[in-house]
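Researcher: Go.
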Amino acid sequence: MHIAIALFIVLISTLLMFKLSKIAKTKIFFKKKIVYINFQFVYQTGLLLLALMILFLLYLFYPVNFEHFINIGDLSAPAKSVSWLGIEEDETWLSLGLSLSFFITAITATFIYFQFKKSNISFKAALPYLPWIILFSLTNSFSEEVIYRFGIIIPLYGSIDTNFILLISAIAFGLPHLKGMPSGTIGVVMASLLGWLLAKSVIETNGYFWAWGIHFAQDIVIISALLLSSITNDNKYEEHNSLP
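Model: Structure:
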């Protein structure tokens, strides 16, 4: 029953996210803003409302697990060793969280760079939009952590083995990236590994700090790249329309 509830939350939320994405492409709130800011404003507003509704339902049906995980957590909690990832016995989440924040962000930035290499985007063009980038990264990372971490961990914790919870979170987070960013098979693998690590951080620290923080750092990179791509496309469109 608990597994069915967790899968239902993830499935419905993912479908609603795709629906929100389509709706957001047709709504214009800021006529003088670039297309991508309009899109993200509508999309993030809807996504945040969805996340808050899920949090309310989790609190209603799983109050004990809700209170257990909805906090910052122990930032220096011991991390369970994972030999194939180089996580050793005596490692803590303070050192592991900082390392993951740096290396995963660097890997994401490298992957995104090669995806957008041929677009001739100017990275300096993103600076005026930095407040928007930070805002959207905060809301997106928060909402997705609610859906793909808390929406799975809170209903399942104490009911099934932790390894299965990590696996479910990894798969649920990875599959939508077939059409996400990063995209394709590599995107799915990268997102699945990230989802597994973030779920591991939540369970082992009993809190959201590292999961949200690491996710936020990835979204800064991704949303910056998508914003720059949008700026480039908008400029090309304006140049084309201005030709005699």
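Model: The radius of gyration is 19 Å.
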